[in-house]
Amino acid sequence: MSWNTATTVLSHSQPLASALDSESPHASVPHTKRFLEYWTADEDFRRAYDTDPVETVTRHGLQVDAAKLRSIIDPNGIGADSDEAFAYRCFIRGKLQFRNRYRVEGAPSNPRFAIWRQRQMQRVYWELGPVRSESVVHAPICFELSKGCTVGCWFCGVAAEPFGGNFEYTAENAGLWRGILEAVRELVGPGAGCGFCYWATDPLDNPDYEKFILDFHKILGRLPQTTTAQPLRDLPRTRALLATSARLTHGVERFSVLSVGQFRRIMEAFTPEELTMVELIPQFNSNASPKASAGAVRERLVKLNGAGVPKTSTRDTEDGGSIACVSGFLVNMVERVARLISPCSANQRWPLGYVIFDEFHFNTPSEFRAGVEAAIAHAMKTNLDSHDPVRLNPLLKMERHPDGITLSNAVITVKMASQIEPVVLPECIERGALLSEIADTRAERCGVPHLWTHHEIDAIWRAGVLDEEPFVRPRAAQ
Ligand code: SF4
Q1: Which residues lie with the beta carbon below 6 Å from any ligand 1 atom?
Q2: pTM value?
Q3: Does 324 lie in the same domain as 194?
Q4: Which among 99, 98, 119, 97 has a CA at the least distance from the CA of 108?
Q5: Tally of domains in the chain
Q6: Best mutation site among 156, 256, 299 for ligand 1 pocket (most ligand atoms within 8 Å of CB)
Q7: Strand partners of residue 4
Q8: For the segment 35-67, what is each residue's pLDDT rounded down to a tens digit?
Q9: Final residue of a domain: which of 344, 378, 412?
Q10: Which of 352, 340, 289, 290 is nearest to 139 (CA)?
Q11: Greater confidence, 10 or 295?
């Protein structure tokens, strides 16, 4: 009673995420990495290297053999792999492996939450396609320690509001914070350690950020990953944060680099070794760092007469992509509000690139705990009931064949064949019939026992191809 799939994949690119948990990289890696950062971000460097490779790498203080790096930068992979290139590839492979493990280790111990998150991961696979969805870690929890952000990037995929204050580490707030982390540890389990403490905020806006993440490490067992667009704002502070990261975790931190000028200043301020475990994201270079049409990017496109955003945008006509990476709770500690969210491709209904399934306010750890428990019980649907509509995710188109169906969108095409009955079921799903109606219709027209239909629809539901919109709790509706 399962549906068989055969997949065709198209491609998109997505920035690499998150963190690494590996042995120390080979001694050549920091300089190879820096060489590639220059090559990617700085056109002057690239031109100079093309003219005189040896002089250019020497002038930039890179301890690399210029000729040996050709195989890394050549798009066709031409050139023999040197030891340095091999070591760098191993380093990158380790990061990718960690990201995959991170998705697994972030699974909540609460069975209901785990089933819900797994289905969201499946849904995101369909919505964003195999390549874009691969980099989404689906962290189960995320905290904002400020309201809004001082940086104001034009490309902010979650449309951060202007800065409106910090959650300060006062005795009272520290008590609330630790109480919440303890509740999270109990309700989510060790996977909560895969959470992090920024969203539509820059962590370094909060002068107490380090105190909060040390509590996080103490209670949840991991130091959360940091991404900042302000690494130069206070160099001793940034260095201390990197040192803490090196001491407590083998994690990768990230600098969002906003201009080539800032990139060069970062290169001057930090040695290659200091930035070995720091990803530099050249936000000013759209080829190296493609932008999702979500949040502020989408707003900008809409203002430009809807360029790239259909005027009649609906959930099925717009594929804005997403930078969201949480399938769980997004908690703002300043406003004391928590939302149950999961990534989606941005559209008019969900312009920030994530669905808000539920929302609650809290003032104390026990209110927070009660809110999470209620969200798990009522907003994390695990199975469809008889009166629930069964309809296809609007981002997917269904084409019917005599022996089954094809589901497709711009990024994925999948053929599916029912082992029971391939005609009535797709017909019913196409018109969004209720589960009970489908079971009755199939029984009447094809003699399929009700139980079989329920089992089959349950498998389709778990595969993430059905519309989740009917299960968004009303108070979260926008
Ligand atoms: S991208 Fe980050 S730093 Fe830039 S505005 Fe958004 S939250 Fe702030």
Answers
A1: 149, 151-153, 156, 160, 200-202, 229
A2: 0.89
A3: yes
A4: 119
A5: 2
A6: 156
A7: 417
A8: 999 999 999 999 999 899 999 999 999 998 887
A9: 378
A10: 340
A11: 295
